[in-house]
Amino acid sequence: MTLLTVTGLTKSYAGADGELPVLAGIDLDIHEGEIVALLGKSGSGKSTLLRCLAGLIPPSSGTITYRGRPFKGANPGTTMVFQTFALLPWLTVQQNVEVGLETRGLPAAARREAALTAIDLIGLDGFESAYPKELSGGMRQRVGFARALVVEPDILLMDEPFSALDVLTAENLRGELLELWDSGTFPTKAIVVVTHNIEEAVLMADRVIVLGGRPYGSIRAAYDIPLTRPRDRDVPEFSKLIDTIYRTMTGRADTPHPPHGLRQPAKRTPANTPLPAASVDGLSGLAEILQRHDGHLDFAELTDELSLEVDDLLPLTDALELLGFAAVKGSQITLTDQGLAYSAADVQTSKQIFATAAIEVPLVHFITTSLRNSVDGSLRAGFFRDVLAHHYTSEQVTQQLDAATGWGRYAELYTYDTRHEEYHLDTVPS
Ligand code: ADP
Ligand code: MG
């Protein structure tokens, strides 16, 4: 039985210079009985696709049907669990869970009973009258789950539900959820989970859909995961799947031509070229390690060498690539001549090489030229926040500015005054 059908979906957001395509050519079915993971790097359009499935935002074109029928507004077959819990702080656990039922017009007694069942199911027994602030992150997310499950939707949608939790809490909650699912007591018929973590996708899903981000989000590949749950990370099949999916995610597979009517962004802008969440120390460290290996490493060797998870490496390799310091091909990462020069040089020279590369990065360039064009070489952070807010969520804006601040500061292009929330040109023209 097919629960959701997505056909030819595109989604654009209005940008400063016209419509910016975020998703295009998405065809997808969600069937009864399956867990589907939507996997992709930050900015690849995962949340946008999930919000379209939920009916929280309309597609720009294409159709989504639930049990064969189109819907207007919210999708009646789905509820959503958010990364940031989104609980109402002035309501108790019990009341927060009942919020999920309010639009269904149930009498109070029935609401109460349904909420208690959901609370019990998700391991919140005894916390009914607690307020969110009294709860740990893991317990808060349980409330998020209970609120979504209380309406017993056909499809549970989850947007990075474990990524705000510490590793052990996340592991524990994920494990319990899968146990419930596999025991057949789960009150939904399908789960769609968004994640940027390859391992999480392979641990959970029956099917992993990989979204590629540039120049717009589209489905790069889909993988069936034939392993039985609970899954063992140490079996060869598991690592093999991780490896294959990793190649797909990092590979610069040729993106097909944009469908008719969608233009490819002509040049790199802060909107279409997000900065990866990488510090200068992090990317320099990786460049040094590559240099020690003759400028050339395989991702698998690299994760072994650093005992890092593949997902932790992505922002660093992306950063080196964006700066022109490395090239990624398949599962190989190679330092460019510029990257070699950068990592081999003394501190002052490498700073200069970094500055030359960083000024070509759209957001760093934008901040620098804006400051140069300002009256006194300084601008409030709010200015940049406002500009970026047209293209990013507020969390993404913060992450973009954090990265740009670190890069610009190291390159001695500009400084950031935290107290006054102001950017200053590093050398104010006299
Ligand atoms: P992901 O969840 O994979 O990180 P998103 O769906 O949040 O990706 O975002 C995909 C792209 O769409 C990003 O480039 C982002 O800047 C842009 N975007 C997301 N939400 C909005 C919005 N409300 N307005 C404009 N652009 C947006
Ligand atoms: Mg997202």
Strand content: 15-25%
CATH homologous group name of the largest domain = P-loop containing nucleotide triphosphate hydrolases
Number of helical stretches of at least 4 residues? 15
Radius of gyration: 23 Å
Report the strand count.
16
Q: Can you lay out the helices and strands and say which pair or pack?
A:
Blueprint: E1 2-15, E2 18-31, E3 35-39, H1 46-54, E4 61-66, E5 69-70, E6 78-81, H2 93-99, H3 108-121, H4 137-149, E7 155-159, H5 167-183, E8 190-195, H6 198-204, E9 207-212, E10 218-224, H7 236-250, H8 280-292, E11 296-298, H9 299-306, H10 310-322, E12 326-329, E13 332-335, H11 337-344, H12 347-358, H13 362-372, E14 378-380, H14 381-389, H15 394-410, E15 414-417, E16 422-425
Parallel strand pairs: 3-8, 3-9, 6-7, 7-8
Antiparallel strand pairs: 1-2, 1-4, 4-5, 9-10, 11-13, 12-13, 14-16, 15-16
Bound molecules: adenosine-5'-diphosphate and magnesium ion.
Could you please describe the fold and organization of this structure?
By secondary structure, the protein is of the alpha/beta class. The chain folds into 2 domains: 2-250, P-loop containing nucleotide triphosphate hydrolases (Rossmann fold); 280-425, Arc Repressor Mutant, subunit A (Orthogonal Bundle), CATH 1.10.10. Helix content is 40%, strand content 21%. The chain has helices at residues 46-54, 93-99, 108-121, 137-149, 167-183, 198-204, 236-250, 280-292, 299-306, 310-322, 337-344, 347-358, 362-372, 381-389, 394-410; strands at 2-15, 18-31, 35-39, 61-66, 69-70, 78-81, 155-159, 190-195, 207-212, 218-224, 296-298, 326-329, 332-335, 378-380, 414-417, 422-425. Strands 6-7-8-3-9-10 form a 6-stranded mixed β-sheet, with helices on both faces. It has a 4-stranded antiparallel β-sheet with strand order 2-1-4-5, covered by helices on one side. It has a 3-stranded antiparallel β-sheet with strand order 11-13-12. The N and C termini lie far apart (71 Å). The model is unreliable at 253-265 (pLDDT under 50). Magnesium ion is lined by residues 46-47.
